[in-house]
Amino acid sequence: MAVAEKATVLRAQGTDIVDFGAGEPDFDTPEPIKNAAAEAMRRGATKYTAVGGTDALKTAIVTKLRRDNGLTYEKREVLASCGGKHSLFLAFQALFNPGDEVIVPAPYWVSYPDMLLLAGAEPRIVRTTEESGFKLSPEGLGAAITTRTRAIILNSPSNPTGSAYDERELAPIADIIARHNLITISDDVYEMMVYGGLRRAHVLQLRPELRDRTLVVNSVSKSYAMTGWRIGYTAAPAEVIKAMSTLQGQMTSNPSSVAQAAAVQALAGPQDSVTLMVREFERRAEFVFERLRAIPNLRCLKPQGAFYAFPEVSAYLNRTVNGTELKTGDDLAAYLIDSAHVAVVGGSDFGAPDHIRISYATSLENLERGLDRIDGALRKLA
Ligand code: PLP
């Protein structure tokens, strides 16, 4: 947020900022989806709906889960909420009590630990490293489990690391989950953005018997460039959905009726816009990776999914520049915005202070300009 604020100030002063901070696709919401919203408004779908979403949206979610994920759910086992973020918030509130421990692999999406704390649960951070592709090892996971461990959060592809589990990597994790009877919260919001022919694995495809203790959380935000519409959803056993729905009923009631109509079109309509967007992200991922790899001593994994690169920058830390000490990736992010006018996000809030996150949800032209600047600014530090 600090870098974003600085970027706004500098931009207002007329400085040309290249922004690699975005956590959302740069594409516009596809036209048929916007048309569905406009049509919904015209036909008067502007009133409250059922708390957990319209029948049409629940049908579209059930159909999508079967079509894309091979998962079978009934309408009473799904709930639409105001974004995947609210889905996760409700899930944590419904599931956890004070003293419960929840495994959060690091680097993690910034909101998980705080949302868990708000639910009274204890985030149990389990570090992963570049060497393991930022994926949990069975040993690392096993060592973190205590008698109080209730659940694990899996986010693949991951924000911020861009890594995604294949079957070989996820199967031993699923075994441990089964052995310890853990609840799995599978955050699938980046599921469509997978590159290089990787076959992304899902815990429920590997172990269907975990269905009774798994929550599938997803959203139209990233897949359909609909971050502002605020529609997310959860598929889970009916009693969990019921508890989440009770909470939602006192928090937001239904998510926006018009946005729900748009989400029906997104989930049930033609999927060609997703394919085009993902193809473009893949081109950018290749480009960003090649450019980052060419910068001396920057360690960066090849992105497997989502739209982030997450280089390790410690070779450029622990020095003083213009009187300011660069201790963490956050300090380096501040240096990059000040001296090179590129906005990136420091890694501390993702649980990885030696990293910066570069979003490639921006044009190839911007990527080229921004990476030239980063390259130049880092070489000055070398
Ligand atoms: N999960 C992850 C990993 C995310 O990165 C985000 C958004 O940045 C979300 C969930 C929530 O997205 P939304 O609330 O827009 O559906």
Polypeptide structure, described:
The model has no long low-confidence stretch (mean pLDDT 97). The chain has helices at 2-12, 31-42, 55-69, 84-95, 111-118, 138-144, 167-179, 203-206, 238-251, 257-268, 272-293, 329-340, 364-381; strands at residues 18-19, 78-81, 101-106, 122-127, 149-155, 183-187, 214-219, 232-235, 308-309, 319-321, 324-326, 342-343, 345-346, 356-359. It has 13 helices and 14 strands. A seven-stranded mixed β-sheet has the order 2-8-7-6-5-3-4, with helices on both faces. Strands 9-14-13 form a three-stranded antiparallel β-sheet. The chain has a two-stranded parallel sheet with strand order 1-12. It is globular. It folds into two domains: 2-23 and 273-377, Aspartate Aminotransferase, domain 1 (Alpha-Beta Complex); 45-268, Aspartate Aminotransferase, domain 2, CATH 3.40.640. The two termini are 27 Å apart. With 382 residues, it is of the alpha/beta class.
Topology:
Elements: H1 2-12, E1 18-19, H2 31-42, H3 55-69, E2 78-81, H4 84-95, E3 101-106, H5 111-118, E4 122-127, H6 138-144, E5 149-155, H7 167-179, E6 183-187, H8 203-206, E7 214-219, E8 232-235, H9 238-251, H10 257-268, H11 272-293, E9 308-309, E10 319-321, E11 324-326, H12 329-340, E12 342-343, E13 345-346, E14 356-359, H13 364-381
Parallel strand pairs: 1-12, 3-4, 3-5, 5-6, 6-7
Antiparallel strand pairs: 2-8, 7-8, 9-14, 10-11, 13-14
The structure holds pyridoxal-5'-phosphate (PLP).
